[in-house]
Design goal:
This protein is 67% helix and 0% strand. The chain is built from 3 helices and no strands. Helix 1 crosses helix 2. It is elongated, with a radius of gyration of 19 Å.
Length: 67
């Protein structure tokens, strides 16, 4: 439809069954996706930095003991 994955498509279609037009349903689904993914990403970055790791070069950090 818009180049999105299958779960997004089903969510838009499900909202359509309740009378929501596709553009509005896509906007609602996109907002819900962002509301779910942004906090998880921020929490993951916080845990990464709190553990002393970084995304600079994971190959160098793989030899480091501790985790």
């Amino acid at each position: 439809m818009w180049g999105v994955d299958v779960s997004r498509l089903w969510q838009v279609l499900a909202l359509g069954w309740f009378g929501v037009d596709r553009e509005r349903a896509f906007a609602v689904e996109l907002a819900l996706h962002l509301l779910h993914s942004i906090p998880v990403t921020l929490a993951g970055l916080w845990v990464l930095t709190a553990s002393g790791l970084s995304l600079d070069d994971p190959r160098l950090q793989a030899d480091r003991p501790g985790l």
